[in-house]
Write a structure and sequence with these properties.
alpha+beta, 2 domains, 3-stranded antiparallel β-sheet, 6 helices
Length: about 150
């Protein structure tokens, strides 16, 4: 598999690159690019997906807290389960991982393939949207880069 990365800027003297897909290629014609060949049969989750996962966990926990939905309320509505505030860790462990294990039989997020992340997110987002009225967009590479540059 070949990965093409486009130069997006410099932070603290370090050049930063973002993955580029076919749609990006026209936009980035005049930018510096890196080409990396990846080995292996399965496409494990990318570093960008990993950061996006953790941002999603955080955003969803913030939305639950802002809506006044305790852990017990959400878990009862989604799965049937006790009463304290949400954190990214709780979203990952009590919601994401449950869906992941039930649908894929994989206990660790490190074992997820790129397609798995999208499938679990879509399923979970549909459930939280329908049952709780909370739908959080999955962070994309542009929002993560923008956040990283803002936090500089």
């Amino acid at each position: 598999m070949r990965l093409v990365l486009a130069y997006v800027g410099t932070i603290d003297g370090v050049d930063h690159y973002a993955p580029m897909d076919k749609v990006d290629s026209d936009f980035c014609k005049d930018r510096k690019v890196l080409v990396c060949d990846a080995k292996g049969e399965r496409a494990t989750r990318t570093e960008l997906q990993n950061r996006s996962l953790h941002k999603y966990f955080n955003d969803l926990s913030d939305a639950f807290n802002a809506a006044g939905l305790s852990v017990s309320v959400v878990l009862k509505k989604l799965f049937k389960r006790p009463n304290f505030s949400w954190s990214a860790y709780l979203v990952k462990e009590r919601i994401w991982r449950e869906v992941q294990e039930q649908t894929l039989g994989k206990a660790s997020t490190t074992k997820l393939e790129t397609k798995d992340v999208s499938m679990i997110y879509e399923s979970l987002n549909a459930a939280t949207g329908t049952k709780l009225g909370i739908s959080i967009p999955f962070p994309d590479k542009y929002s993560l880069i923008e956040q990283q540059l803002r936090n500089k």
